[in-house]
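Form 7-S
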Amino acid sequence: MSKEDISNESETQSDFDGQRDDEQLLFIFRRHIIAMRKGFYLLLIPLVITAIPMLIWQNNLELYWLPVGGFALGLILFFYHFILWYFTIYIVTDQRIRQVTQKGFFGKDVIELHLSKIQNISYNIPGFSGEVFKFGTIVIQTFVGDLVIHQVEHPDKIFNLLQNAVNNAVKHQGEHEEVTI
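Output:
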C-alpha cells in the first residue's frame, strides 16, 4: 500500500460520521488482513472436524452432509470476524485521530485523540512474519496514556503519514496561539 493508495482511499471517502465543519480528512487506515487469522481458522476447523467421520465411514452417505454443515458453521464464524475487522477503522484528520472499533454485530467503541496532544509515535515490525506480510504495531504516546494499534498494514508508511499530520497540527496550533496573543 503506497502513500497514493492511502490518499486515494481517503479521497473516495471525503466525510465521516462526526466530522467537524472545519476539519479535513487526511487518510483512513485499518488493520492488516492477518488480524483476521482467527476468523480463517474458525472457517477451516469446523470443516475439517466434520469431514473426519465421512472419511472413516465412507459407505454412510448421510455423513456427507456433515462437512456441508461444518462449512456453513465456519462461514458464520468467519463472517463475524470479518465484520469486526472490516468495520474497525482509524480516521486521521488535520485535527485528530479517531479509532472506531467494532464490538460484535451492533456495538462499537470510539476513541478520539487530538493530534496536538501526541508526544511521540513509534512503530515495531514483529520479526520475519511482519517483514514478509508487511504488518506491525504503531504506538501513539500521549500524556494520559498510549494508543497501541496492533497489526497495522505497512506501519512504516502509516507512521510517516501520522508524523506529518502531527507536525502540521503542532505548526497550525503554534500559528493559532501567536495570532491570539
